[in-house]
Amino acid sequence: MGWYTPTSPAPDLAGTLVCGWSARTQGEHLLVPDACMDILWIRGVGIRVCGPETTAWSFTLPPGTESVGVRFRPGAGSHLLRTSAAEVRNIRVGLGDVLGSTWERTLTDRLDNASGHAERIALFENAVRAWRSRGPEADPLIGTVRRALARQSWNVGALADAASVTERQLQRRCNDAFGYGPATLRGILRLQRFMALAQSGTRTGLAALAATAGYSDQAHLSRECRRISSLTPSELLASEAPDWHGNESVVDVGNVQAVGPRTGEESAA
């Protein structure tokens, strides 16, 4: 199956990127939605922007395929790439399709001629810095929504009220930043929360993990897990997905544990 190595981003990019990563893979792999967007370089292929996914999808690579990329935090990539995340939802496009051919040619040439994976990740991080310095300011609502739904499973109406926007405004702005509305984002981040809690080792047993992650019961976890990942909860935890972000996470497990079981749907904290 080759290898996959996630690394923590540079400190100044921690609010924008979950991780950098390098891989040499082969065979079939299943990607599970995490509400993130990736930008990656594949040797012999070039640079691709991977939009946010709504359901798991599998792909097969030739033996020894080499790739390097960076993963944006949920909602953090769309304004830097100057495109609505909804336009790249469930698809992969060339960098030139979103930022123009100049960026694509220049960055591809540098990546192709870099000395190794660490240098390629650094090149991607420098590009993200450039996009961040030249791009528009991020919608402040998006960070609020990401942090809220990463910690617990808010009711959409309560989330809109707490953010002082209408549900329609919340839907539109989430669609642009995340690629889908707050209800879909809630389900994807809740599943990420389940995996992060399992990885932390502070909860054992699917029933306890389900309750702490914000599911109504274990059956609710099983249904949502199959719908989003196509796997059972046990199969998901045994897969590659829990290790995709390395030491980082798209959710804050400490705050999840502080909330406690089953308060997410009922609270507006």
From TrEMBL:
Residues 139-239 form the HTH araC/xylS-type domain. Keywords: DNA-binding, Transcription, Transcription regulation. It comes from Rhodococcus koreensis. It comes from the Bacteria. GO terms for molecular function: DNA-binding transcription factor activity; sequence-specific DNA binding. This is AraC-type DNA-binding protein. It holds the Pfam family HTH_18. Coiled coil: none annotated. The keyword Ribosomal protein does not apply. InterPro entries: AraC_XylS_family_regulators, DUF6597, HTH_AraC.
